[in-house]
Amino acid sequence: MKLDLGGRRAIVAGGSRGIGFATALAFAQAGVSVSICARNAEGLENARLSLARTGATIHAMPCDMSDPAAIETYVSSAAEALGGIDILVNNCTGQSSGNTEEDWAKVIAVDLMGTVRATAAARIHLEKSGDGRVINISSRTALGPSPHTQPYGAIKAGLMQLTTSQAAELARGGIRVNCVAPGSTDIPGGWWEKCKARNPDLYSRTLESFPFGRFGLPEDIAGVILFLASPPGSWITGQTILVDGGQTLGI
């Protein structure tokens, strides 16, 4: 199966590290012109330099995905730099790990409303493309109780429902909308790497939940996103694909 996306133009919101960076890299290696955004300007520039080594056209711009005006400005800038938008990956997260009012507000503003606003801002460009694709990033956490991270679990579940609504609304404009729900993914400098040092028992229990004996990697998730954005995935819309290496099987 050839996943050739040469000539396409993609935005990866939250593309400076982890799953977002792996996705941007996979796109760039497949011949896609890519724009990435993130809050941290230094990390964003480092990611841009790494992606540019592929030879692809790379655009990067800091953006606070909780700020409606910043999203509009970023998407317009990306569309101008790339000559249009064919693919939008909504990967930004408020990274909340608590249950306070502040945690709820952060996850709603970034994970939910950031996705809503970025899709709305990109819609005109995706419709002009004639073959637009939106891929929202949810989480395995959305599929069951999440007592310690209730805002994150609830909003990620909301993204799954939002995906079906967006797919129904945008189909007439030639836009497919799907969702990817990663399982526990080991990202350099990420939550599970820190957990290994701070809470080794939880880390070990989670590792044991994988029948293949390892955490997911950003590249595992990026491959599925690449497929959904590619021609072989062109008859899929309104779906959530769980990418967790069997973590939910309980075996």
Short descriptors:
seven-stranded parallel sheet, 251 residues, alpha/beta, Rossmann fold
What is the helix content? 40-55%
Question: In total, how many domains does the architecture comprise?
Answer: 1
Level-2 CATH architecture: 3-Layer(aba) Sandwich
Q: Which residue ranges are poorly predicted, with pLDDT under 50 across at least 5 consecutive positions?
A: none
Strand content: 15-25%
Radius of gyration: 17 Å
Compute the average pLDDT.
95
Can you identify the CATH class?
A: Alpha Beta
- Element-level helix/strand string: EHEHEHEHEHEHHHE
- How many beta-strand runs? 7
How would the global form be characterised? Answer: globular
Question: Gap between N and C termini, in Å?
Answer: 31 Å
Helix and strand composition category: alpha/beta
Q: What do we call the CATH homologous superfamily? A: NAD(P)-binding Rossmann-like Domain
Describe the main β-sheet briefly. 7 strands, parallel
Please work out how many helical segments DSSP would assign.
8
The main sheet orders its strands as 3-2-1-4-5-6-7
| CATH topology category name | Rossmann fold
